[in-house]
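Design job #97: recover the sequence.
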């Protein structure tokens, strides 16, 4: 029996992604033969982007076929359409979905069917946050508009990554932009408010990112550059003093660092005065304040300063000052037992009328009622009662309605008929003169004559010149350069009677002192030998020493003729030297042992008032070492601490050095050991003295010549240029003075 051969259709599947730039289907898989299943297919599409696949069917049997979806997708929709040559499958992902999805499809020719799986990946594009640069107000919050983009057109949300260091942020405005693919009615979308910390005026930044519901963008930075304020806006106010009844110009400096124009307007005016127009200047703004006549006290007005970003109220505090009035001392003459009218006066810089009042009454006698005689004058009657001849006084003060003056003294000079001489005090500058007005009082109104009783001790008086009935003038001139206290006394006469003796006390105020000055080029650099003291004086007194005639004061003069003295600045002696500076400028410098580098010390020259500091430099040339076998103590080879053995000097010295030997005990107990000269070295005994290129160092003496013994067989060995002077060499052991091939040696 023959069976009909069943033939399945030959299928070919072509997958096509539907995108804006690719309209042609692209073959991905071909189905042919009689497979049990189709190979899985992978399909990728962008978020919110449909994808279409075409299944091409080669049907050799000519059967009509169908295509259907068996399952899926879970996150999108599918459309299946059969055509003559195959099947179109179109997948549309759900809006906003990103991830993986799957569908199962079947091809059926009515006899046999074949199933296949399509795995779909829907990709999400990463959104982008935009960098923001914004100049912010320094003193107030600022709203920042941030933005982001999403290639998929997803709605975005915003979140802070790094908060600002010196302020706080509000929450981002919710919703979507007011325009674009996610348009809503919220124009504040993406806005956040930055509020600076109290007092923070600097630049700020924070970072944020955007989220499309699936992924977040990289962080973007918001840079907030602070508005730099004029100092006036930072301070917020200023204070000005204003004289009573005096218009005053108030100036506010408004130099803006950012170059902004600062607008100024009036917020509130003063309560006790008026303001002129605000006038803009290159430096800021000026306004004229005129206080209410007679007002004294505190007032203020407020300006608004606006640089375009910040507004600050600027408070101008005004202190309208009432200048205190002045009451004047007064002296009147009276006669014992008789009442006298005392005229009182005062003045007020502000021009206010004055009132008078008694502060303290007289010790003896009584006062009547004060009577005003004018804006600045008053009278009171003093009745002396039992007051004897002499002065009686009371105090009074004046008031201008705001403040009182300091008390003034009214003196009533009571006399029994004789004139009265008035004591006083004066001051004068040193080396100047002063004209002194001498005063007296005479009850009978007679012309007074003035006479000096005791002349001044520290100055002179000129001739006395009459100025009126009761006054005369005399010139006092202090002695040159004198300052301090002086006095003289005088009396007056009315032709019949003489007055008391009154004293004029004088204070001579010292002038600012002129410091000593240098004339010419003072000698302040000196030279000595290492280990040898230096003496600078009028006559030599130190031995051993390098002596220089002179002193440190010879080139100084004092314009005030006060006399000069010199002194050492001890802190300047730092190398270990011993320095003595005498007041007359002479000095002795003893160097530290072995020093060869320059040394310095400071000294001051003063006239008793103003010191001048100078520096002495000591330089060294050549070296001298000293030996005295009678010295007891620590030795360093200096004259003050000589070596006690010749061996120590030989070990410490070198070519060109001098070894000076004192007589010591060497005549009784000779110095042991020999001495081997080095080139140009000198060995000198005390009787010969020591003179170098700097002059006499040690004076020659009648002392016995030091004796060198050759104990141990060591003698004296000369070298080129050696000098042996004033020394006896004892050769009892056979070794005395030796020289081999030596040139220029001297023995004496």
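Job complete. Output follows.
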């Amino acid at each position: 029996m023959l069976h009909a051969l069943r033939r399945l259709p030959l299928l070919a599947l072509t997958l096509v992604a539907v995108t804006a730039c690719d309209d042609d289907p692209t073959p991905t898989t071909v189905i042919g033969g009689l497979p049990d299943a189709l190979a899985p297919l992978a399909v990728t599409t962008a978020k919110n982007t449909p994808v279409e696949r075409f299944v091409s069917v080669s049907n050799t049997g000519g059967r009509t076929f169908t295509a259907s979806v068996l399952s899926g997708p879970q996150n999108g929709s599918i459309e299946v359409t059969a055509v003559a040559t195959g099947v179109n499958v179109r997948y549309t992902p759900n809006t906003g979905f990103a991830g993986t999805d799957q569908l199962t499809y079947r091809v059926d020719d009515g006899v046999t069917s074949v199933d296949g799986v399509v795995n779909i990946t829907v990709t999400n594009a990463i959104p982008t946050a935009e960098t923001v640069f914004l100049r912010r107000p320094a003193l107030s919050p600022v709203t920042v508009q941030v933005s982001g983009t999403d290639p998929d057109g997803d709605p975005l949300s915003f979140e802070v990554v790094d908060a600002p260091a010196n302020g706080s942020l509000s929450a981002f405005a919710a919703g979507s932009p007011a325009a674009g693919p996610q348009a809503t009615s919220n124009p504040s979308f993406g806005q956040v408010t930055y509020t600076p910390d109290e007092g923070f005026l600097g630049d700020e930044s924070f970072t944020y990112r955007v989220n499309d519901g699936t992924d977040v963008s990289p962080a973007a930075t918001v840079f907030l550059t602070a508005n730099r304020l004029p100092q006036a806006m930072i301070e917020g106010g200023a204070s000005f003093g204003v004289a009573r009844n005096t218009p005053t110009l108030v100036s506010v400096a408004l130099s803006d660092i950012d170059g902004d124009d600062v607008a100024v307007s009036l917020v509130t005016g003063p309560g006790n005065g008026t303001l002129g127009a605000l006038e803009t200047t290159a430096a800021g703004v000026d306004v004229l304040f005129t206080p209410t006549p007679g007002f004294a006290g505190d007032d203020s007005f407020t300006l608004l300063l606006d640089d375009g970003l910040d507004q600050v109220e600027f408070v101008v505090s005004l202190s309208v000052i009432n200048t205190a009035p002045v009451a004047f001392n007064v002296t009147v003459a009276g006669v014992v037992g008789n009442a006298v009218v005392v005229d009182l006066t005062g003045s007020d810089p502000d021009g206010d009328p004055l009132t008078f009042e008694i502060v303290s009454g007289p010790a003896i006698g009584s006062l009547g009622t004060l009577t005003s005689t004018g804006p600045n004058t008053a009278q009171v009657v003093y009745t002396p009662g039992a007051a004897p001849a002499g002065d009686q006084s009371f105090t009074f003060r004046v008031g201008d309605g705001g403040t009182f003056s300091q008390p003034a003294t009214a003196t009533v000079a009571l006399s029994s008929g004789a004139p009265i001489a008035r004591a006083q005090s004066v001051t004068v500058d040193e080396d100047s003169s002063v004209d002194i007005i001498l005063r007296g009082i005479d009850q009978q109104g007679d012309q007074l004559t003035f006479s000096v009783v005791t002349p001044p001790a520290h100055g002179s008086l000129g001739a006395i010149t009459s100025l009126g009935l009761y006054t005369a003038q005399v010139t006092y001139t202090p002695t040159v350069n004198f300052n301090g206290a002086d006095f003289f006394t005088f009396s007056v006469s009315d032709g019949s009677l003489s007055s008391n003796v009154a004293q004029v006390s004088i204070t001579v105020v010292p002038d600012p002192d002129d410091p000593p000055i240098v004339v010419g080029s003072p000698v302040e650099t000196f030279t000595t030998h290492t280990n040898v003291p230096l003496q600078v004086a009028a006559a030599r007194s130190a031995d051993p020493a390098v002596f220089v005639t002179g002193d440190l004061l010879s080139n100084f003069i004092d314009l005030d003729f006060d006399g000069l003295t010199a002194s050492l600045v001890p802190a300047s002696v730092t190398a270990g030297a011993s320095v003595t500076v005498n007041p007359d400028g002479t000095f002795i410098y003893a160097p530290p042992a072995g020093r060869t580098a320059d040394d310095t010390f400071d000294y001051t020259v003063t006239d008793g008032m103003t010191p001048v500091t100078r520096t002495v430099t000591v330089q060294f040339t050549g070296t001298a070492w000293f030996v005295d076998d009678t010295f007891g103590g620590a030795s360093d080879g200096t004259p003050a601490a000589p070596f006690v053995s010749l061996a120590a000097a030989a070990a410490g010295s070198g070519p060109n050095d001098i070894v000076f030997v004192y007589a010591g005990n060497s005549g009784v107990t000779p110095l042991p050991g020999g001495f081997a000269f080095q080139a140009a070295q000198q060995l000198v005994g005390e009787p010969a003295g020591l003179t170098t290129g700097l002059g006499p160092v040690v004076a020659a003496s009648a002392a016995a010549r030091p004796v060198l013994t050759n104990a141990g067989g060591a003698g004296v060995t000369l070298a080129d240029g050696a000098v042996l002077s004033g020394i006896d060499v004892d050769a009892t052991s056979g070794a005395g003075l030796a020289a081999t091939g030596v040139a220029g040696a001297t023995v004496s």
